[in-house]
Amino acid sequence: MEETDCPTCKYPSVKFRDRVSEVCQFIVPRQTNTMIVPNYGQIPVVKGDLSWLSPEVSIFLNECVQLMTPSTIRICNGSVFEAQELRDAIANEFGGEEQKMLNRLHLNLTDIGFDDINVYTKDRVDAEPGKPAPQGSTNSGSSDNIENVRLSSHYMSASHFEFSKEKQFNGCMNGRTMYLVPFSMGPIGSRHAVVGIQITDDPVLVLNLRSTFRVLSSVWDHLSATTHFIRSVHSIGMPRPIIRCIVTPTPFETPVGSFIVLKHDEQQVWAHGYTFGRTPRFGKTFSIHAASWIGTKKGWLAENAAILAITNPKNETIHVCYSSLASVESLQLQPGPGWKIEVISEKTVWIHWHNGKMYALCPENDEMDDMGSPKNLSNLFTGATSEYQIQSFNPQKTKWTSDVGVPISAYIFANRRHDQYPLILEANSWEEGVCLAAGMRVSVAKPRSNSSENSIESSPRHILVECPMLRVDAINFSFAKYVNHWFEMGIGVKSSSSESSDTYEAPPPPPIFFTNLHQEIEGKLIWPGGVDNAKIFEYIFGRCTNPSDLSNTTPSGIGKVPKSLELSALVNLSPLLQVNIRFWLNELNKLRIFFNLQMECCLPPQLEKVLTDLAGNL
C-alpha cells in the first residue's frame, strides 16, 4: 500500500493491491464515516471525514445533532464538485435548470422584513436596547410618532433563550441533511482573519457562504489551531415529513425576516428562518454584528464603510474609508484630468493598527465584485438569470497585496443634512471627530400625517434622527463601550521596528472629515453635484498629503473648513462653508442630551471633556 495522487483532484489517495481508484475522493469518500451520538444513535457522514474536526468542533457538532436530529451529516470543503452538487440539489428543489449555473442565489430585499435580532449576554449593559426619545423632548427632531433609531437589539435572558432554542430547534432537521461548513472572514491564514463554522440544513446558505466568505478545506487546519472561532447554527425550520394543506393556486405570502440570537460571550450565532442566507445582508451577521464584539476585545473596528483609492496626476495614491447611507455610485464621481477615484470595496471594513499606521481590510470575498453579483437584488429563484451567470470562481483570489489591507489616510462621514451643516468639515482631533460622529443626526423624509393639507405644507419636510457613525446596523452591545472603543482606536500602536520606548511618540490617527451635499436654502439644494462631487475628494487628498499647509483652510471652534473650491459651476460657497456659532452650540446641546440619555452613568469621561472644549472653542 502506498500514497499516490487522485487523477481528478490531485488529492493524496491510497494505492492498494496495485490498483488506484479512478473516482475522486470528494465525490465518493474513501471510507464510510459514522458519528455515534449518545442518546440518539448512529448518523452517517455522507461526505467529508470526521478526522478533519478538532475536539471543540466535534463537541459542538455533537450537541447540535442531539438537539436537531438530522438524518445525515455532510462535512463541506468548498470544492468545485461540492458546489455543483449543491446547485443540482437547489435546481431539483425549485425546478429550474438555470440554478445549476449560479454561484449565488438571493431573494428580493424589498419583499423581506427586518431580521429580529436578539442579544444574549451575561452583562445586561451590553444588551440594553437604545432608549427612544420621550415624546415632546428636544433631543431629536422627530414628531410624537417617530422614535429614535434603535442602537441595540432586543435583550434575551438565559431562560428565554433556552425556551426559544428548545421550541424552534428541537428536531428541526428531521429527515434532512446537516451541512457543516468552515469559513474564514479575511484571507485564509491571515493574522487578522476570523474563522468559524456554520451548521445548517439549507444548501442555498452553503452556496452563498462559499461566495461571501472563503470556504476551503484548509480552513479546517486553522480551526484545529484555535478555540476562539464563531459557532453559527441555522435551520429553515421545515422538518420532514412536511404535513401541510395544499391550496391551488398557492396564496402569496410575504417573506419575513429571520429570528437571530447573538451570544457574544460564547461567540455563537443562532438563526431560524428560511430567509437567512438568501439575502445579501446575511454576511453582515458575521462581519458586522459578531465581529464588532470580537473587535472590541482584540483592538480593531468593524464598520459599514467603503474603501476608496484616490490618485492625483502625479500618480500618488491614498486610501480613505468612506461611510455613507447611500452607495458610492450615487455620487457619480467624474474626477478631473489626471485624477482617479477607485472603489476598492464597498461592503464591510475592518480597521486596525499595524506598524504605526491604521489599516483597513474587507473581510468578505471580493472576487464577486468583478462579476457584479452582489449588486443583483433580483429574485434569482424565479427571475431571469442570463445576466447573472458566473463563469469562474476562485475563493483564494483577492485584490489585496497584503493580508493587513491598505493604509488609511482619512475617515470620511458623508452626512445628509438640509440645514447649516457645512459642506466639508475637518475635525480638529480624533477625539472631536469621534464625538461628532457618535451623535450624528441625519435628515429623513417626514411621514405624512392625517392632519389637513395646510398643516402638512407648513410643517418641515424632513426630520432629524440619530444615526451614530452612520451605522445602519444595530450596535448590539453597550453604546458607551462602543464609543469608548472608538476613542481607544485613536491611540496609535507602536511599530515593531520603532526605536526604544524612551524616545517613542505615538503615531497620529488619520483625520476625520464630514461632508454634507444636501444643504438647502428655501427648499432648493445649493450644491450642484455631478462633476463637482469629485472636488471634495481632491480637497481631502491635499489635506492628507500636506496637512501643514493651511493656506486654503479656515479654522473654527468646531473644525477646519476650506476657503474655496474650484468648481465647474457658479455656486455661492459662503453658506456651504459657513460655521454658524449659534447652530453649533445648539447642535452640541443636542449631542449632550443624546449621550446622557443613551449612556447615563456609563458616559466616557473623554466624551464630556470634548463637548465642554468644543463649546468653549465656539
Automatic annotation (TrEMBL):
PANTHER family per UniProt: PHOSPHOENOLPYRUVATE CARBOXYKINASE, PHOSPHOENOLPYRUVATE CARBOXYKINASE (GTP)
Required cofactor(s): Mn(2+)
GO molecular function: GTP binding; metal ion binding; phosphoenolpyruvate carboxykinase (GTP) activity
Domain of life assignment: Eukaryota
Domain named Phosphoenolpyruvate carboxykinase GTP-utilising N-terminal: residues: 60-292
Organism of derivation: Caenorhabditis briggsae
GO-annotated biological processes: gluconeogenesis
Biased composition (Polar residues): 135-144
Protein family membership: Belongs to the phosphoenolpyruvate carboxykinase [GTP] family.
Protein name: phosphoenolpyruvate carboxykinase (GTP)
SUPFAM superfamilies: PEP carboxykinase N-terminal domain, PEP carboxykinase-like
Region annotation Disordered: where it falls in the sequence: 125-144
Pfam families: PEPCK_GTP (PF00821), PEPCK_N (PF17297)
Domain Phosphoenolpyruvate carboxykinase C-terminal P-loop: 390-614
